[in-house]
Amino acid sequence: MLFEVIQIITEQVNSYLLECGLTKSVIVENIGLPESQTENIATLVDKVALTLLNLQEEATLKNIPNHYYENNKIVYRNSVINLNLFLLFSANRSTYSKSLKDISKIIEFFQGKKLFNQSNTVFDRNAAAMSDVDNFCFTVELYTPTFEELNYIWGTLGGRQLPSALYKVSMIQIERNISQGERDLLNQIGAATQSKIQP
């Protein structure tokens, strides 16, 4: 679901940029590519790169049991992994003013729409990569790092700082469709135990 969420966000932001009279400039790409990779660097020219910066497991939901009832049995699964994503929009447009305009419009878009689900979000459902997308719900909020954190982020990415905005996307659920075991439902009490309970 990682790729699908990032693709949905990319399509939504590009649609908004078009509505505002700007170009569809957002692409999913690693902004931290080494300078030696000239082919990939060419794809970043005059674009806004959307990069997955970090993943964070939502620890508060880690211990919720994951089981369901099916055909008079309890089916057990491993706990669902709930993730927060940190996504960085980095504007590498042809001019600094275009970069600032794009980042400003991206911030404006997420100010107007923070909640994304299958009923309020339009995306290309016919694309092969998006065929498994069913029900989803996630929120997007601006995350403001300190100057020290920002310096560390751009140092890790290669040192060349661009106009950017960092967002926290909560909560992406990842679950493999495999059971860990199943048991019959307890539907009667043994006769010996039952006789002790009766007055």
TrEMBL record:
Source taxon at top rank: Bacteria
InterPro entries per record: Pvc16_N
Limits of the Pvc16 N-terminal domain: 4-182
One Pfam family it belongs to: Pvc16_N
Protein name per UniProt: Uncharacterized protein DUF4255
Lineage: Bacteria, Pseudomonadati, Bacteroidota, Flavobacteriia, Flavobacteriales
